[in-house]
Amino acid sequence: MEILRLGNALLRQKAELIGDIDPEVQETAEKLIDLMHRGKGIGLAGPQVGLMKRIFAIHIEKDIPRIFINPSIIETSQELVKYEEGCLSVPGIWGEVSRPKNVRIQAWNEKGRPFNLEAGGLLARAILHEYDHLDGILFLDRLPDLKRIRLLAKFEKLQAKQGPQKADGKA
User: Fold this and answer.
1) Which end of the chain is more exposed for a tag (fewer CB within 10 A), N or C?
2) Tens digit of pLDDT for each residue in 78-95?
3) 161: CB partners within 8 A, 6+ apart
4) Is 169 within the bounds of a domain?
5) Residue 170 falls within a domain, yes or no?
6) For the whole model, what pTM was predicted?
7) For residue 16, is it within any domain?
8) Most distant pair of Cα atoms in the chain: their distance
9) What is the DSSP annotation of the chain?
10) Is the residue at 1 inside a domain?
């Protein structure tokens, strides 16, 4: 498994529902958490590693690692909050994104158990960011046009300097 970078067509595709949560899905969940930690990120979604399934991992400091399988957003707050976001698929690029302050989500964990979660702060932001990946949306898409164009140009320059992607998903 490696982290795909901006420019890979899979990052723009919509992920499919996962059927049975079997040992293979559980192994995938473990790999997502491991790769997220190695990349020093707080979230990683299936499409970011070329797995076009509706699964993502999140690990916020002082919290447990969490797996979300076939998640559905039940509700988001009306209040929006701006915060600087980055992405393991767009290394070296950060942009201030407005997102709902709170989210309520339902999903299944890696053991096949359903759960509901109400989240605020960084956890809510991470959930919404990773959920976007399941629909082929990147945080750059949520930025004003001019800012997005500037950041894309910066990303291209960074990629030209770094060269080809290594097997672990890092340059």
Assistant:
1) C
2) 999 999 999 999 999 999
3) none
4) no
5) no
6) 0.91
7) yes
8) 45
9) --PPPTT-GGGGSPPBPP----HHHHHHHHHHHHHHHHTT-SEEEGGGGT--BSEEEE--TTS--EEEEEEEEEEE-S-EEEEEE--TTSTT--EEEEEESEEEEEEE-TTS-EEEEEEEHHHHHHHHHHHHHHTT--GGGGS-HHHHHHHHHHHHHHHHHH-SPPTTS--
10) no
- Domain, as residue range, for 65: 9-162
Residues labelled as active-site residues: 130
Phi, psi (5° rounding) for residue 34?
Answer: -60, -50
27-58 residue pLDDT tens: 999 999 999 999 999 999 999 999 999 999 99
Q: For the chain, list residues with pLDDT below 70.
A: 163-171
CATH number at residue 21: 3.90.45.10
If one counts the domains in the chain, the total is 1
Question: Closest Cα partner for 11 from 43, 36, 48, 40?
Answer: 48
